[in-house]
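pls design
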């Protein structure tokens, strides 16, 4: 610290670099939707987190839902992402970003017959832990509902049959 700086104005040293290799990080397969944890909120002072979502062909990722705290930004690496954003249906190919703002009812899926992979940037960070908790409670709908409440996530489970029929999708048995 220099003679003119005080503890309140001293600039902390930057953290060590974070390098995540292509196959780095833990993963879980929810049966059509996978999650690969890449950058946790703790590494970004909780500003954002990053997960990858590999999706099987024609797989619905989730029931219609809305986040009360997070915005999501999806970047398509390969395949074709389909999304219902409010009343709008969009499709996005490689190199395309799709923004899913908080409080907007939405869902997404693999709209193609080949695998789809997206990068999901979640802001603020912390929601990556939702996937960890759900992976441990997979198959327990009561616990799933409690996890949704903790993360201020509204989920319309009854939307699944209509979404699957409308877009020609599959969804795993919970």
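designed seq:
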């Amino acid at each position: 610290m220099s003679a003119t700086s005080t503890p309140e104005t001293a600039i902390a040293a930057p953290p060590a670099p974070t390098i995540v290799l292509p196959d780095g990080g833990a993963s879980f397969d929810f049966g059509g939707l996978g999650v690969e944890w890449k950058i946790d909120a703790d590494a970004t002072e909780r500003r954002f987190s990053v997960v990858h979502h590999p999706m099987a062909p024609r797989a619905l990722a989730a029931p219609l839902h809305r986040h009360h705290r997070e915005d999501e930004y999806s970047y398509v690496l390969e395949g074709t992402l389909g999304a219902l954003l409010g009343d709008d249906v969009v499709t996005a190919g490689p190199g395309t970003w799709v923004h899913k703002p908080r409080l907007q009812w939405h869902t997404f899926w693999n709209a193609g017959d080949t695998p789809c992979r997206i990068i999901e940037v979640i802001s603020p960070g912390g929601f990556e832990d939702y996937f960890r908790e759900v992976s441990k409670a997979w198959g327990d709908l009561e616990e799933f509902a409690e996890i949704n409440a903790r993360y201020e996530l509204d989920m319309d489970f009854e939307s699944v049959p209509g979404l699957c029929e409308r877009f020609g999708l599959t969804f795993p048995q919970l």
